[in-house]
Amino acid sequence: MSDIVIIGAGTAGLSAAIYVQRAGKSALVIEGANYGGQIIGTSSIENYPGIKQISGFDFATDLYNQAKDLGAQFAFEKVEKVEDLGDEKVVYTNKNEYHAKAVIIATGMIHRELGIDRDQELKGKGISFCATCDGMFFKGKDVAVVGGGNVAIEDAEYLTRFCNRVYLIHRRDAFRADDAEVRKLDGRDNLVKVMNSTVTKLIGEDRLQAIEVVDKVTGKSKELSVDALFVAIGQIPSNQIFENLVDLDDYGFIRTDENCKTSRKGIFAVGDCRAKTVRQLTTAASDGAIAALNACNEM
User: Fold this and answer.
1) pLDDT tens profile 81-124
2) Which of these, 86, 84, 122, 96, lies nearest to 228 by C-alpha position?
């Protein structure tokens, strides 16, 4: 039995593991995919204090190795259920069950999908959620990015470096991204902004060949020939399996207090999966440290 089971190996979960181990307790991190979370696909991190610039992959790998070197254990399995037995918690995965004195939920968020016909069918066949992962497959080709936040802007800027033409499609007349990110698009001659518009149709047989875009102001539609569409329209929390365990807000985020404690004693929530206003690497790391230390202090 571990002292603390941490569900999720993103920045918040790995930070929690580091602090648990440094407090002299044992941490087991359970992750259903790969360590690192969403940040692993980011080409460049420039807003983490003390680190001028680093790739998302290197940042996540450093965190993972630090936690592992401190003695944290890892199980790459999918969590299906958490049961609260009072002083003991049981985490059930698709392979095993694990017992612990406390649980820290760090499940992050998942990509919001387009929700239009054929978006599932063409996923991986022209539809992608990670420009840094898949972008180079489309070197010299025409591609599109849909979204208006920081991720969409970063994806578009990255793709302009090697793609022939990049369409940036946003449903409003102004981007939601930080001004510093938007300014990075200045001077990108191969970038085409398609504002006040939504993607309404995916065209192609075995692979994506074009998209239909509708102008929300005029109602007119047009077809853009592209080999890839990178979707960056936001994310939603991955908390469905916890809805009968802890309190969630109306948007599915886990309610916590300032110490990352949930409505259930001995269960904490950290990072993007919990209800809060600021979701950054720094706040994820902070959450992990706060929850870990509070969980250890309760033992």
Assistant:
1) 999 999 999 999 999 999 999 999 999 988 889 999 999 999 98
2) 122
Catalytic residue among 84, 119, 130, 215: 130
Active site residue 257: no
pTM of the predicted model as reported, rounded to 2 decimal places: 0.75
Residue 243 amino acid letter: E
Task: State pLDDT tens for residues 2-52.
Answer: 999 999 999 999 999 999 999 999 999 999 989 998 888 777 788 899 999
What pairs with residue 209 in β-bridges?
A: none
Q: Annotated catalytic, 273?
A: no
Q: How many alpha carbons lie under 13 Å from residue 143 in its C-beta half-sphere?
A: 32
Active-site pick, 3, 62, 119, 133: 133
Q: 42-65 b/e with 16+ CB inside 10 Å = b?
A: bbebeebeeeeeebbbebbeebbe
Per DSSP, 45 falls in state B
Q: Six-digit token pair at 83?
A: 């049961």
Choose, from 69, 84, 117, 134, the residue flagged as catalytic.
134
Distance CA 102, CA 32 (A): 19
- Smallest CA-to-CA distance from 238 within 190, 211, 271, 287 is with 271
Establish whether 130 is a catalytic residue: yes
